Amino acid sequence: MFSITLKLMKKSAKMLVPAGIAILIGAAFIATTFLFSNTMNDSLIRQQTAVYAGADAMVLTDLPEHPTDAQSDEAYSRTVADYHLDRIRTIDGVEGVRAVTATNIRLSNGNHHATGYAINTGETNLLPVTVIHGDRPVDNREVALPEHIAKQLDLHVGDMVHVSRGNTAESQGSADSIEARVTGLTDDPNNVYAYDGGASILSEDLMAFANGVADFNQVNATSIYLDLDTQTDTAAIKRLLPRYSRLVNRAEADRLAVESLSANGTSVVTIFLLSFGMLAMLVAALVIANTFQVLVAQRRRTLALLRTIGAMKQQLYVSVIIEAAVLGLLASVLGVALGIGLMAALCASGIMASTGMDARLVLSWQVFVVPMAFGMLMTMLASLSSARSATAVTPLEALRPIELTDTRRAGVVRGIVAAILCIGGAALTGFSIWQMRVSITGQDSLVKDHYATVLLMSIGGCAMVFLGLILSAAFWLPLLMRGVGALVALAGPSATVANANIQKNPRRVAATGAALLIGVTLVATIATGATSAKQTMGAALASRYSVDMIAFGADMTDKQATKAAETKGISGSVYMPTTVMTTTMDNGETLHMLVAGVDSAASLHKVMKADLRGVSIDSSHVLLPQRNAASGKELKFNVSDIVLKSSADGDTDNANGADATLTLKPQQSDYRRISSYYDAVAFIDAKYFSDGDLTATGHMLLMRVDADAAGVTLNDVLTNVQQAFSASTGVTVSGPVAERNMWETMINGMMALLVGLIAVAVLIALVGVANTLSLSVIERTRESATLRAIGMTRGQLRRSLAVEALLLALVSGVAGVLLGTLFGWIGSYMVFSLYGTVAFPFDWGGNGLMLGIAAIAALIASIAPARRAVSVPPVVALAEA
After folding, report:
1. Which of 79, 418, 498, 555 has the most CB atoms in a 10 Å sphere around its CB?
2. What integer pLDDT is reported at residue 420 of this predicted model?
3. Which residues pair with 213 in a beta bridge?
4. Which N-terminal residues, if any, form the signal peptide (predicted)?
5. Residue 382 domain boundaries
């Protein structure tokens, strides 16, 4: 029977190609997922263990499973002195030892500034970064800088640089910074400090200064690295170690690194990606099931003849399963080869290296076994229904005409299960939406203490509804296509034929449409959720800020502010001096304010989105917000005058060297989030600064952004404004534009990834459309020949197949878009209601593009079947049918 099965496969090879392509794509996806995970694991492990440099052993923290606060404090507050480095160096076999300390530093050379990460010096083979020019620091205020930072600061080996602590304001020449000599330039070949852009090496006295202690022995140390020979007395080393420490060799450290990554890192990524691989295979299974149903229908006479000569039902059943297994195996093998080839090309291209990942192709047994096993399994499962149909063929059917059209109705059990899923899912989703609504109105609900549970209920409910609709597609999708087809049939003979043909096999049409429906629904859900997130967060941020973009800093210069104000996309700006002052509230609380000087209220009106009617800013008035920026509490001033005093938090005193005091009449307007560093931002007459009553300790630039009118993106505006202040380390750029850009960048990145993954399922579904059309043409050989014989032209026959393909793709696609939009709205409501009023957009552009691509792909899919339909002369086709 096996040889007969292979011969039947060879005869039907062309029909098996689309199903094989579907399996190939799914298997390639799964293989690539494992390869990507392997590459990522390998890169991260090498990067993580590269921090050990040439160490043979290292000391790790070894706390009990449930440590007390005291035990944790003791383990993580150890200093260099606790490791007794001098005594360890005297042990036979210890060739080198280095305490592991680190800190953030600020570097300054004239008007050039930079921040960076720094580690302490030690033996060359124990340093995770290499010195490529000059020498490593030894002592006496020496530093080796990353090459790019040295270039940024215009420094060379032998130059002097000011070093200050990373958590304090840098002030050249003050007690907060000291001069150090640059002894070398460093490189980070293993990307140990890729996140920090490399690491500087500090001499021990500089590391002590950067950590704010007098001696290096007082610096907090997390571990020590050792260079040992094979005869080292490790027991002697262990006796010198502090409590909760464990000495491990390099092999053990590498093993622990692998465990930590698999537990907390790339396994999550692998599972996430594999879920889309499984989805691709599920869609492929629908395509495969269609293929085998028609194969069995076409072979009814052959199967009947086999029964006549003695073949048992079980043999026919096994024959179909074997055919599916062979097809699944061959296509999966090709898919694995394709996945390996794609990943090898990706690693060789350098694309992953540009992201900081040292990528290399890493094979594992999962790359081969899982895609092949899953591909074979899904193919065999998809063929079970066809195998049962094969066993129903009787010997007498060998003498009957072949009837390929499957007119069976969907089963009652399927309808009941689908109805239960839809009703249960709708109830679950409705309950979660109701709970969220109740919570928003301020009433008690499950959302308050069990938000995660309510969110999972809504997700589960939508999933149940979606699964129910997929199961019941055999009932409603053919009816939907029949209704749309009746309208399309009015367009002419070709459309009429297409409408009639698409109704002949409702089960296959439903399976093909369901495959496309899955992919389109998921893409539409993600697109709608992303669009809703952008609009909702944009509106929420706009309501929390009264100014589009704010630049603030102590070292902002007039030239920088002018350059920023002239940036394309900035439609208005106000540059003002600032200082820090305090006042006393009606309730006795002290209010810390950033006081800014402006020429008039009209200047603020150019950039501020707030009601400033009736506001005057002159020598006798001060403009204050209505709410505290930090707490959101209402600010009340029930007096005719308030007193503003220079704050001790200011960077400098006033011009007279004494506290400045202003008595002004308060005015209030509901403007928000000018700066989140202070309780409030107040505006006074700029003359107080120009006349010398107050000394500016900083400057602030308020900007109105109109990116659309300027034809630029928000990201471009933000980047260019930040670039204008790049020479100043103390200037920060904030506001809704900055936060919105961060949100949109993150959302766009996630959306691109998810849509790209789901596009695989859509691609397979479109292969299914081509498969359905091809099988339909084979079934209708006699019918097509008859139509040609009675006068239908080749062009009309091609158009009928094109219309049929468009009906399949667009009806399923539109249904998927509507479902996806609904699910996207529900998801957005459940997530973003916590942040503001949720937007419920319909992504016309994205959905239109997706339907357009589906339509074009469907037309392309109809080309090959149409060519086959018109290539055979009517007389020959009638004779063959």
Report:
1. 498
2. 94
3. none
4. none
5. 1-55+250-403
What would the pLDDT profile of 670-709 be if each residue is shown by its tens digit?
Answer: 887 787 778 889 999 999 998 888 888 889 999 998 887 7
In angstroms, the CA 706 to CA 507 distance is 54
- What's the confidence (pLDDT) of residue 285? 73
87 and 225 share a domain?
A: yes
Name the one residue in this structure whose structure tokens are 């040295």. 150
Instruction: Check the CA dihedral 851-853-857-859 and report its sign.
Output: positive
Structure tokens, 465: 């509804």
342: how many CB neighbours lie within 10 A of its CB?
A: 16
pLDDT for position 182: 95
**Together in a domain, 82 and 214:** yes
- Indicate the burial class of 304 (C-beta count within 10 angstroms; 0-12, 13-18, 19 or more): buried
**Tokens linked to 748:** 């766009």
HSE at residue 854, side-chain half, CA atoms within 13 A, is 36
Place of tokens 């500087």: 200
Alpha helices in 177-249, H assignment, sequence order? 204-210, 234-240
3-state secondary structure of 651: coil
Q: Looking at 732, 747, 764, which one is the last position of a domain?
A: 732
pLDDT at 277: 63
Residue 839: both structure tokens together: 């937007």
User: How many domains is the chain partitioned into structurally?
Assistant: 4
**Under-50 pLDDT residues of the chain:** 168-175, 263-265, 402-405, 649-658, 881
Q: Is the distance from CB of 217 to CB of 230 less than 8 angstroms? A: no
Q: Can you give the pTM of this predicted structure? A: 0.62
Burial class (CB in 10 A: 0-12, 13-18, 19+), 197: middle
